[in-house]
Amino acid sequence: QVQLVESGGGLVQAGGSLLLACVASGFVFSRNHMAWYRQGPGKQRELVARISSGDVLNYADSVKGRFTISRDNAKNTVYLQMNSLKPEDTAVYYCGVTINWHDYWGQGTQVTVSS
Predict the structure, then answer these.
(1) Is 38 helix (H, G, I), strand (E, B) or coil?
(2) Which of 30, 48, 59, 63 could form a disulfide bond with 36, CB atoms 3.0-4.6 angstroms apart?
């Protein structure tokens, strides 16, 4: 079955950096687009960044120039490098994949940015 396991969250001061990782299993990782989403307190889940199977990248305007998504197909892992973090980046971050029109999510990892 599809499994996504995120790691790397934590508490960081504004201006700091974190590297999130998501290890995937149960599907052919290299053939699928992968994405990071986040859900802040009292907010809806939103797309943060997406990387296609061909390494085409897309970012939310709010994170452009600060966050970088990448993937390592040999390790079935997608990463989110987050720099210049702001308090408004505080959220639970989820790794996601859509397979046969079904959305799969990991359990999420908490990122808290203090001012």
Answers:
(1) strand
(2) 48
Euclidean distance between CA atoms 6 and 28, whole angstroms: 18
Reported in sequence order, the residue ranges of the chain that DSSP labels E, i.e. its strands, are 3-7, 10-13, 18-25, 34-39, 46-51, 57-59, 67-72, 77-82, 91-99, 102-105, 109-114
Secondary structure (3-state) at 47: strand
What's the whole-number mean pLDDT along residues 9-14?
Answer: 98
Binning pLDDT at 50, 70 and 90, where does residue 103 land?
very high
Strands 34-39 and 91-99: antiparallel
d(CA 73, CA 15): 30
